[in-house]
Write the structure tokens for this entry.
Amino acid sequence: MSEQINVQERLTSVEDRLERLESLLTSINEKLEQTPQNSVAESESTEKFQEWVTDYVSMRLQQLVPETCDHPAEAAVLDGPFLDNTNVPCTEEVVHRVKRIPIPFVREMVVQRVAENARSAQVERVDIEFFEKAATF
């Protein structure tokens, strides 16, 4: 009989603990579901601050590295894709082929070599045939 009483007490104790745990989990869930409501003024001030930071960073970058912020005059005249970090126009196939080169420094070397060959050959637009010839080392 005492064993049954002991088991019953343990069972009651476990049930009490489970009820407390369930109530704690419920309160945590309710707190997580509550989302803070931002006022219109707060969102507008946040947007203004983000805009100011963007303008400031843009201005500082242009002051620090002006040659990368200005676009070459030829780039505005010609349309279509260009070889990475150059003003040499190319076809979409060439852009796709360049992106398939997995190692970044090798990709940069290939692009520079093709760009130099295109400038020396005075090619208006690099196509896949010229790319394959110029990219070989």
Summary: The two ends are 92 Å apart (CA to CA). The CA atoms of residues 83 and 95 lie 7 Å apart. The chain has a mean pLDDT of 83.
